[in-house]
Amino acid sequence: MLIFLAKSLHLLEIVFVMFDRIRKKLTVLADAAKYDVSCSSSGSDRKNDKRGLGNGHISGICHTYTEDGRCVSLLKILLTNHCIFDCAYCVSRKSNDIERAAFTVDEVVSLTMNFYRRNYIEGLFLSSGIFKNADFTMERLLRVVKKLRLEEKYNGYIHLKTIPGASEDLIREAGLYADRMSINLEMPTESGLKLLAPEKSHQDVIKPLDFVNKQIIQFKDEKKLIKHIPKFVPAGQSTQMVIGATPETDKEIMYTADTFYRNFSLRRVYYSGYIPISNDTRMPIIGTQPPLLRENRLYQTDWLMRFYGFNIQEILNDQNPHLDTDIDPKLSWALRNLHHFPIDINVAPYRMIMRIPGIGISSANKIVEARKFGKLRIDQLKKIGVAYNRAKHFIKCIDSPFQLRDFQAHQIKAFILTESESKYLKNANNQLLLF
Amino acid sequence: MVYLFDRSLEGLLTSVFEWFERRPGKVTLMPDVGHQPDAFMAFLTIQTSREKADRVLKGLLKRLDRAWLRKLYCCYLSETPEAFNHIFQFCCYVFKNHVGAEKNYGDPHVLAISKYAKSVEREKHRMEAFIRFKETKDRVFYCSIDPDFNVLPLISKHFKDRYGDQQWLIYDHRRRYGLYYNLKTVEEINMDFNNKLSSGSAVSFMDPKEVFYSTLWKDYFKSTNIISRKNTKLHTKHVPKRYWRYLTEKES
């Protein structure tokens, strides 16, 4: 009896020590992975087959939000933060004196499964520092996803990093199990990247992005002919750029994004405001505020490009290389192009209605549907969800008040600014100090 | 004139039938429980009838597409008296007008239906996101919820598809019923076990592994936060405080 008790106590101790070790690893490796902002779990309709666990949700689910307001959808971890590279902007760089750790394949699989079963997460986001070489790292990542899909019958979301320089066979095989793959551009321009990470170049990123993109297209074509073709990266590819570490203009950033959207049919480009993590004099020093407002404006521009039918040259060009900080890019485009306005809500085409400040996609859809049944009035517009105080300077509807004089752009801007208060107002001053 | 119905979906559809039978002009639909008779307003209690409801449903099926039928159903699940009345008015409106009239967002009832449907769908989505299962000793993954609207019928499929290889139980303790998945089908269950579970002994029902994983999850939640980007306003906008009691990561 006593021996049995001693044995079970010993077992308990082992379990406890193991738990403690995993706890430590998770803290280190989640901390190192958090600067990758990609969080989306959408775009994959992977079904739960063979009575396994998990399925994709086409619009994704954010299971919680961190205290900085970012969504937590995936268990975002590095396999290891050991790295042979020394990129100045990265916490895991070789020369940085931090705690290093590495998960085993089984640990990642067990964490993912148990978190998923409790509905904590929507899936796994697995990245890694480069240890030994690219192929060795990619092979380890591949082993994790294969084990999840084949042994554990896991059908939840998997976002996998493509390791630049890994062999095409490994990348192709990984694509059969992952829902999304991504490689980070890191710096918006080649010169910026060369400054902070001399060992890397944009070409390293472009090659695998292009390879995966061509594979996706090929698999889709084959799917048209043969029904039972396996899924290949069904949620497509994404990339990320660090903003504010090097002195690029907004124009340079967005033109790069636009090129990558077009050339590699990316689903998303993420803009990650640089959070100072080192005393390197080439970058903003520790204690500098992260450029949150700038990040927000870049995302707004990104949305205008992807969903509102704007051409990037209309928003950013040589005359306007930077986005306005005090007003959003759509409003600032409208103020520069007052000759298009006022737009008559009751007759204008859909693409013009989308360009009115204060009207979003869902309001625009409702307006186009509703006006078939009769001319729209101001009160109806308000109920549909139009931000009327903003839109009123740019629209005409059936009962718009008659106006004798035309206002100038700066007057309209002043009207709108006095009526609204920016949520970033307290950050706005810090922003200007940066540049 | 006021129509009173028994809060059932069939009762609601029957009242639409009765309106077209009698055509009494302007009518407001109200639930019968808690109705206060008004001296200046005549009222009629609708006798729920399966056949009449079916006929109205058939008519709706012909006129509305799936998306709109779902909107109506969501609106019904919001369980608010105003929503019931809006459904009633909307149905009458759809039958009186030609096909396609449901897209008239200038109409107050059309707009109201889409608004109610939107908030019910939002609540449904929040439940899909914020439910946190705890594994009990008998290997059932359990969670109790208290949603603003009756969303259990809407989330059933999602959880069945997702957790096909584990038994789970989601219990709505405001409406006193739950869904239990027995590895084959989802069953509706009624039981009164709240008192036992809400008392301090709840931990003893749980699998010992549960403490490990909830601690790991809390650790993860902490270490994935970037302190220099702290934005409490945005945080509470996405995760309103009334949901915090569901969330493992918000437990102290």
TrEMBL record, chain A:
CDD domains: Radical_SAM. Keywords: Iron, Iron-sulfur, Metal-binding, S-adenosyl-L-methionine. It holds the Pfam family Radical_SAM. It comes from Pedobacter insulae. This is Putative DNA modification/repair radical SAM protein. The keyword Acyltransferase does not apply. Transmembrane segments: none annotated. Its cofactor is [4Fe-4S] cluster. The keyword Cell wall biogenesis/degradation does not apply. It comes from the Bacteria. Gene3D superfamilies: Aldolase class I, Photosystem II 12 kDa extrinsic protein. Residues 78-210 form the Radical SAM core domain. GO terms for molecular function: catalytic activity; iron-sulfur cluster binding; metal ion binding.
TrEMBL record, chain B:
Residues 82-249 form the DUF4130 domain. Pfam families: DUF4130. InterPro entries: DNA_repair_put (IPR023875), DUF4130 (IPR025404). It comes from the Bacteria. This is Probable DNA metabolism protein.
